[in-house]
Amino acid sequence: MTFDQILFYVFSFWFIASSLAMIFSRNAAKAVLFLILSFFSAASIWILLEAEFLAITLILVYVGAVMVLFLFVIKMLNIDKSTLRAKFAGYLPLGLVVAIIIVAEMALVLGSNQFGLEVIAAPERHAADYSNITVLAMQLYTDYVYPFELAAVLLLIAIIAAITLVHRNEGNRKSQNIAEQVGVKAKDRVRLVSIATPNKGEKS
Questions:
Q1: Are 45 and 8 in contact (CB under 8 A)?
Q2: DSSP assignment of 106-149
């Protein structure tokens, strides 16, 4: 067994262990931390496959931005635990059925008959000047340019839909009238009030 294979099994073990710990963790903050560990393990496996760009992107984007945002949102939400337990118990049978179906489908698709070394050869080693970013860009903007543009359009639609849902109530919408701000005068904004001062013998 080579050193690369040992690293692969070590990273795979921590990837699977952190994923299971994230699923079965009752604390939401700990679940996010386990998910961060699984991302680091997956990035390490990608580095072994000479996909350095994808590994760095996974850590910078998901661990550095998305997971931090999730952690802040989870800590800021005031969630009633009794309500969560009631909903969890209600959706548990359906969740188990869906989980079993997903595991069965993944076992059929990701089996050794489709992804074994007999079917797909091990990735070959490249020279030191090899750039996987160039190869990824060539594939992304040539063979997969239409799915890439479609994904960009879907993200744009999601952004517009989120903004529309936030501002769907006209009462919460705030607008700025530039003409009204420019035409304002000091006498309309400031009111001088004269207060009579009491004499020395009088109580204020």
A1: yes
A2: HHHHSSHHHHSTTTSPPPPP--TT--HHHHHHHIIIIITHHHHH
Mean pLDDT of 35-51: 88
Instruction: Report the C-alpha gap between 142 and 34 in whole angstroms.
Output: 37
What pLDDT score was predicted for residue 18?
92
- Note the pLDDT of residue 184: 79
Tokens read off for 63: 């661990």
CA 142, CA 146: separation in Å to the nearest integer?
9
Tens of pLDDT, residues 138-150:
888 888 999 989 9
Residue 139 within any structural domain of the chain: yes
142 falls within a domain: yes
Question: Is residue 151 included in any domain, yes or no?
Answer: yes
Neighbours of 136 (CB within 10 A): 14
* Total tally of structural domains belonging to the chain: 1
What is the span of the domain harbouring residue 130?
Answer: 126-162
Instruction: Tell me what the pLDDT averaged over the chain comes to.
Output: 79
Rounded Cα distance between 18 and 30, Å, is 11
Domain assignment present for residue 134? The answer is yes
